[in-house]
Protein: non-specific serine/threonine protein kinase
Organism: Perilla frutescens var. hirtella
Amino acid sequence: MSLDSLGCSYANVQAATDNFSFDNFIGEGGYGIVYRGKLNDGQFVAVKVQKETKAQSCAEFLAEVYPLSFARHTNIVTLLGYCCKGNLRILIYEYISNKSLEWHLFDNGAKVLDWNQRYSIAIGAAKGLQFLHEECRGSPIIHCNIRPSNILLTNDFVPMLGDFGLAKFGTSRFDKQRKLLGNLGYVAPECRENGGVGVRCVKADVYAFGILLMQLISGRKALDSSTPDNNITHWALSFIERLALHELVDSRVEDAYCKYELYSMARAAYLCVQTQPALRPTITEVLSILEGTNDHLRHVKSNLYPIIISSEACSLN
């Protein structure tokens, strides 16, 4: 699928964004600058313009980005098209209007995400990542940048993974190392040891997903000055290993949470952030833990603690 087949040539994109007007500027992500646009048919889109480009032809760029267009799933932001113009490399996504999980967790002082929303976001994000890793044509597609800012929420708070598979478009070793520092709280140990260059595997995504689960539970940032070593991982693991799970929960949620769901999220997070990649579960196994569909997964045996809470005890009423 190309932009031309959707009537979205570079000229269309230029017109949709009013020539990339600052009035349509949304923000800046790992891939580049993001603009809001409106196509001729009235559809709103998010237009991402790569900040820096490596030496490649348009044909090479299109060949690399083409597989991403097959990622069609309820929990994935749809890539509608892409195009080139000179040194510009442009991606067009569906526009999600309810901002990111990062904003709702950390910046929205008016309304706090309740427990049901947090648990549903964890499940939906896991399903989206499962699709990229195991079910999408051309899979596995490695996300490489799982974090709250890359999870967009619909008006019904359905989570949608964005910016998947874009790490490959980094331009240089220096650029990748710079991005590594910015994402340090989510980077798996094996990636840090390698300087963040050339290490792309599904288990690195799983590690980052574990950090995300800790954030959903606690409402804390990955690098948090109020935690030991400014690191949410060590702080959260200390509570999980002592079974003091109630101390993990975001104080803004108070007692309005399901103990069994908390247990499932904490258990999954613990397994995801294991230092050795081989000890981490697959995202399908993580999803099974979160949904409580299999409490005795053969490949993710954990001596941390047994199942001690029944799902029947889960009630927020």
Q: What stands out?
A: Strands lie at 25-28, 32-38, 44-50, 79-85, 88-94, 151-153, 159-161. Residues 115-135 form the longest helix (21 residues). The chain has a mean pLDDT of 83. The first strand starts at residue 25 and ends at 28.
